[in-house]
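Hi D.,

Good news: the full-assembly prediction came through. Inputs first.
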Amino acid sequence: MSIMSIDQLTSTQIMETSPDAGSMTQEELIEEINRLRKERNAVILAHNYQIPVIQDIADFTGDSLGLARQAAKTDADLIVFCGVHFMAETAAILCPDKKVLLPDLEAGCSLADTITVDQLREWKKQHPGAVVVAYVNTSAAVKAESDICCTSSNAVEVVQSIPEDKEILFLPDMFLGSYVEKMTGRKMHIWMGECHVHAAIHPDEVQELAEKHPEAELLIHPECGCSTSAMYEVAAGGLPSNTALLSTGKMIKHVAQSPAETFIVATEVGILHRLQQENPAKRFVPASEHAVCPFMKMITLEKVYRSLRDDIHVIEVDPDTAARARRAIERMLEIG
Ligand code: 13P
Ligand code: SF4
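Then the structure:
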């Protein structure tokens, strides 16, 4: 018989004594997740685009900024991150003494993939002295080469915090970048990256829906392909004046205090679950039913259960990269 490592033995023993996730009902899976969450002092964090059942079992559901803040302040020993890789990595950077798990390693982000650390180093060489503002949708290595991070919730405030005489390199989302330019009046160098889900939400779809629902408020995520033209359309009167460009977290807050009854929502459709749950009397119309992030949908109850049971997959960032990336994230958290 071959000699097994302690790690192998442990996971084999767990497999033998625990029920197999594939044969369990949803109720059994939730029961086991709750038992393990308690036993292991774990917290489950979920992004607003997760499938409904994951949002429902999470201890906290929110946008990128809210999730980073929750990770930074949790006293749990284990964080199960139901989101995409860069989000779990951000949690691991902020909590070096905790174990951070991502239930599916394939849960990446097409936007984060639009810039590599080598490309950023090359860009910096062309603009010596420029301040690098990195959207959190980036790898740890890219964050480590950046001066400050931002999310869609605080990008305007982050750019406003940079001295007027400084050149700014903003990456990697071009639609968010032009929104920030418009809101701050600052000219920036913007990386031409985009999220394939949001970039596909076109201005003509949104325009058509706005005409069909003239009473509706229009909520647009600044990553959307329609966001740049929406800003000009609102100014020109082509879209309702009650159009707002908001992060997913700000959409949730906005709807709660708005007197409107109908909302056209231009972002990934996962957010409609929470909007509807928290506002049962209001009506939500997706700007595009095809706006589905395949990475966000990779996390399932089975995978969360296996993750908690077998420590699948531990997200680690090498300490030097983590320390440099942490500076950029913490600067952002100090601002807003
Ligand atoms: P939020 O920070 O608005 O949740 O956006 C994150 C994201 O990945 C958008 O696609
Ligand atoms: Fe990345 Fe786009 Fe998915 Fe957000 S919706 S995680 S930006 S691919």
